Amino acid sequence: MSSSQDKLVDLFNRIGYFFRRLEIYTGIPPTSAMMDIIVEIMVEVLSILAMATHELKRGQLSTLTLV
Q: Model's pTM, two decimal places?
């Protein structure tokens, strides 16, 4: 795998870890501050996914093989 593919896989793994933790957090009643932080993090995750999608469309898509 190329370096850019390794970085993309690492990115998605890290996002996956966040969502696993988020699932635990949703099991307890959230405070207002906690909800604000969760919303901020979700916005950042969506932003990161948008950037990764843009990079893939820009030329990396043809070299990435999803199995």
A: 0.60
